[in-house]
Structure formats: C-alpha cells, structure tokens
Amino acid sequence: MAPNLLSGEEVYGQSSHRQYSTDTFPRPYFFYGSLMDPQRLSEILRSDIKHLSSLRPAHIIGYRCKLWGPYPALVYAPDAVTHGMVLEVQDEKQVERLQHYETSNYRVQACTLRFEDGSEPRGETFMWDGEEGELREGTFDLKAWQRLEYGGHAVHGDITGARQAEVPTGTDVLIETTPGALDRARVGVMRTRKAS
C-alpha cells in the first residue's frame, strides 16, 4: 500500500516518493528483518548501541513479508500486518548507510507507523524493489538469525515486541554465510547451536 501524499490516504499498488525533504531529521524508520537487531543496526549506522534507545516496537498495515533467499522483503498486501521496530534516524548519512546495507533491491517507502500507545505517525521503511518472481513464501526469524550471526551466543540488545518465533536448537535455517549480509549470492545452510 503506497501513501497518497496529497490526501494522506494510502493507495494500493502505487509507488510513492519520500514524504520528507532531505533535511528533515530525525526521521522514523520501520525495520522488519536483521535491522531489528540493535547490534547490527549499531554497526550499520556506525553509532554507539546506547544511542539506539529510541528503538521501539511498532507495526504497519497493508504490507507483508515474503523471502528473498533468507531475507525478508516487504510487499503490498491489503489488510496484512507486519511487526517490527522503529528507530529515529538522525541524518542523511545514516539513511545512505541503511540503503547501502539494503542494496538496490529495496527502495525507501513512506508508511504509517502504529505504536502500542495508539499513536500513528508517518515514517519510512525499505520495500522490495526487485522482481516479484524472486520472492518465496516464508517468514524471517530474528532470534534464529541472531543465534547464527553471533555464533550461538545470547541475543544482543532488547528486542521486546519484535514478535519472532523460536527455532529449536539443531534446526536447519537458511542464512547468509558472509559477514555483513551484503553478498547475497553466497547462501548456505547452517545448523543452530546451543548458547554457551
């Protein structure tokens, strides 16, 4: 669902440009994949993890996730709900770092954020901009991704409200094998391990 920026309504199947001018900061961004992880987000933004204290749970309506390999990809879906986390991005440099991490297969999309307190501000997210045929049905499991990314150690940061399912130890999970998740062509199957 793309917003109609003139009326404030959301219109299905239409693309949208950013609702903000490039000098309006801070700007809320909605994350629904690996960027819900505070440590990963801190690495990408080159920011101290303490500065991510504004990271909080939210959801958006009118979008759902499919998978591009092991990565979630947001697509239009009337009445669907996607849960994730929102962070106030501080400047255009951070937006550029996020876009670099997301690659050219994702584009910035304006959306309405819905918080637990009932507030509904406008924000932005990264939406799939590749071929629909490259996606498959499935869900992203943040906790499983964290266990694999951090070598089976404890989850870093607070992800309260992220609504991710638990994956049993020893389950096969498809995950990127290169650090930073930028080389999306090299995907392998790894086994989850017990936290030490």
From TrEMBL:
GO molecular function ontology, one term from the record: transferase activity
Taxonomic superkingdom: Eukaryota
Every Gamma-glutamylcyclotransferase AIG2-like domain range: 29-134
Pfam families per UniProt: GGACT
Keywords: Transferase
Family membership: Belongs to the gamma-glutamylcyclotransferase family.
Name of this chain's protein: Putative gamma-glutamylcyclotransferase
Record organism: Letharia lupina
